[in-house]
Amino acid sequence: MYDIELDWSDNMKILGSVPAKDGFCMPGEFTLHYGCILIWPHRRDSWQNGAYAARRAFVRLIELISMSENVIVCARFEDYDEARRLLPAKVRVVEMSSDDSWARDVAPTFVTDGRTVRGIDWGFNAWGGLVDGLYFPWDKDNKIARKICDLLEKDCYDQRSFILEGGSVHTDGEGTLLTTEECLLSDGRNPSMTKEEIEHKLCETLGVKKIIWLKRGIYNDETNGHIDNICAFTSPAHVVLAWTDDKNDPQYEISKECLEILESSSDAKGRPIKVHKLPLPEPVYITAEECEGLDNMDGEPTRTAGERLAASYVNFYISNKNVIVPQFGDNNDEKALNVLRPLFPGREVIGIPTRDILIGGGNIHCITQQIPQT
Amino acid sequence: MYDIELDWSDNMKILGSVPAKDGFCMPGEFTLHYGCILIWPHRRDSWQNGAYAARRAFVRLIELISMSENVIVCARFEDYDEARRLLPAKVRVVEMSSDDSWARDVAPTFVTDGRTVRGIDWGFNAWGGLVDGLYFPWDKDNKIARKICDLLEKDCYDQRSFILEGGSVHTDGEGTLLTTEECLLSDGRNPSMTKEEIEHKLCETLGVKKIIWLKRGIYNDETNGHIDNICAFTSPAHVVLAWTDDKNDPQYEISKECLEILESSSDAKGRPIKVHKLPLPEPVYITAEECEGLDNMDGEPTRTAGERLAASYVNFYISNKNVIVPQFGDNNDEKALNVLRPLFPGREVIGIPTRDILIGGGNIHCITQQIPQT
User: Fold this and answer.
1) Best label site of A78, B41, B259, B332, fewest CB within 10 Å?
2) Could you give phi then psi for residue B355, rounded to 5 degrees?
3) Measured between CB atoms, does A14 come within 8 Å of chain B?
4) Per-residue H/E/C for A191-215
5) In 3D, which of A43, A42, A95, A92 has the Cα closest to residue B97?
6) Distance of residue B234 Cα from the nearest chain A Cα, in angstroms
């Protein structure tokens, strides 16, 4: 009676091969998503006042993303009930241990061959390990990628011997990758690899053919200058670049250097890169009151009053229906949205206040990780 | 371009209604399953030697079930890597906190209307709460049902104000429910409810119309006599009953009383109940060595040497292809399989050694929970 052949899926295989050889590549963020992964914030030295305000900011963001994507939120056991209560019913909340809440950097990077989606499990060492990492230990974070593949029933490429965060690479889905030397050549990540070896690794894992190396990321960005805070593809051959006209701002030289590189670069298909300048907000500094809300967990304070935060409008998330952009209560908030609008004709460009996320050390793009739709 | 209407599922709704009113009922275990849930064992005062042997027994069971069902194993953060390593790749391992490992009693009870599957989230108090419960606290266990519904994207009936374990009820899927007074009328569960109120609750939640009340379960069963260790439906109108012919065994009177009740009962459709006697093994006692392998977590030992364990062949699991039956190295092991074989003509009846599970206080049925296929 039940001796029937059922098509049970073979859930998660750990793959020792590399995506490019299997015909897989990382699609551009602007192509269709199945959904998005986030991690419920909890770390008391990252998020002020026990993450109270950060959680509300996450909820606001998630409400927007969940209008057009399946959202999965990973919450620790002790936070599960609150996350479930604050989040819309259509959001899936799953229990998962974590050290902090940067899904972009600890969730899998997804690749696809157009039919199937697979994850890549990179090594994660909290943005620099014992050299200049931001916290210790990071073992819970380093286990998340594989668990998410298991959860989503996606096969998983084992790349744990290579340290990489998702926020340090952007692709156009057509063979071109953007990154920064400041991050990928840092002493705290893969110091034994040459630039050429790292290029080769990126090509075989992300399925790209050409890498555009910017020098540095946003001034005082504690991730060693992640690309996703300074420059992003909005479509193939089009990028936005964080920009200031203030020559006294240390950011000026950094952005100018990026501009020169980009304007003299072509993409994997030979097209010149068209750069759209995205204004930066006036420098944002953390207040003494905000610093007091950060618990001191490991002997040294996370931030000091007056420290400049790495605020940038480039750290947006491209959801299926919306582009969701950080806002800082700055005169340039609206200007930034207006730069982005013509670049995303099929989507509504929406700003949301994210100072409470910025204090944690990143922004909208850093706390999200898209899952491609096939 | 992406302004398209996508059929995003509305994942988990918490339902305040009751299944019967919505046309849902609990199917018989012998109907087709989508899959099966288990919880990776870890509790050091339940499972000897840090659950070493129990884990191997779980793996053996899971390998069999996963031949014909999707198996989901819930593992604590600290056990995840080992579970993933020991289990077949096709098994899905998800992180979930738990107090112990009795999926039958803490996972949702699933109901269906033939098209959709929903879960019921009962209250759980470790088999008797502060009256005669088996451990404290039990808060992690009590949160599992809802989390599994979220994980499986099933709507969830909130019945947390009613204390019930899945192992205390069996249904034929055609309106009849089997249970024991020893358990459901115990002081540690729902002492403020009358028997009639409990009957009403079972009817409206499990979609049954007739309840057959046995008096007591297996002798010295610490669950207050769960039905799933003494009597089970093998098909509508057919049950197996744990049986001994030894009049000096305290179990004799219990089984005889059950037999009399069953033989004078008819099911919801008016059919007489046909009872198939399933021999018990010779009494099984825990050894001093086994007791020494149980850590003492809360001030009193879980078991004492020479204590009789609630061994019974009735605690089998009906998977899509197999009926998987406990074996104790007893003369009756093969006899029990031969009683079951003609009752499950479409399935292979397989025995596996489960003493290492029995020591924990239950057996195969207690550590599994099926998810119906629709």
Assistant:
1) A78
2) -55, -35
3) yes
4) CCCCHHHHHHHHHHHHCCCEEEEEC
5) A95
6) 14
Supply B34's token pair. 């989508």
Domains of chain B: which residue ranges?
A: 14-372
**A342-346, Cβ contacts within 8 angstroms, sequence gap of 24 or more:** A343/A234, A343/A235, A343/A238, A343/A240, A343/A276, A344/A30, A344/A234, A344/A318, A345/B1, A346/B1, A346/B2, A346/B3
Nearest to A94 among B68, B140, B150 (CB): B150
Query: Taking CB atoms and an 8 Å limit, are A346 and B11 in contact across chains?
Result: no
Q: How much helix, strand and coil, in percent to the nearest 5, is found in chain A?
A: 30, 25, 45
| Three-state SS at B50 | helix
Cβ separation A94–B13 shorter than 8 A: no
**B135: burial class by Cβ within 10 Å (0-12, 13-18, 19+)?**
middle
Nearest chain B residue (CA) to A151:
B94
Q: What residue type is assigned to position B146 of the chain?
A: R
| Residue B366 designated active-site | yes
Taking one residue from A and the other from B, the number of pairs with CB-CB distance under 8 angstroms is 105
- B184 sits in which H/E element: helix B181-184
Any idea how long chain B is?
A: 374
- 3-class SS letters over A235-260: ECCEEEEEECCCCCCHHHHHHHHHHH
Peptide bond into B137 cis (omega under 30): yes
ipTM of the modeled complex? 0.87
Strand partners for A211: A177
Rounded-to-integer distance, Cα B374 and Cα B371, Å: 10
- Give CA separation, B182 vs A34, B127, B128, in Å: 50, 12, 12
> Which residue in chain B has the smallest CA separation from A12?
B89
Tokens of A68: 């057009």
pLDDT tens-digit profile, chain A (374 residues)? 444 455 455 567 899 999 999 999 999 999 999 999 999 999 999 999 999 999 999 999 999 999 999 999 999 999 999 999 999 999 999 999 999 999 999 999 999 999 999 999 999 999 999 999 999 999 999 999 999 999 999 999 999 999 999 999 999 999 999 999 999 999 999 999 999 999 999 999 999 999 999 999 999 999 999 999 999 999 999 999 999 999 999 999 999 999 999 999 999 999 999 999 999 999 999 999 999 999 988 777 889 999 999 999 999 999 999 999 999 999 999 999 999 999 999 999 999 999 999 999 999 999 999 999 98
Q: What phi and psi values does residue A234 have, to the nearest 5 degrees?
A: -105, -20
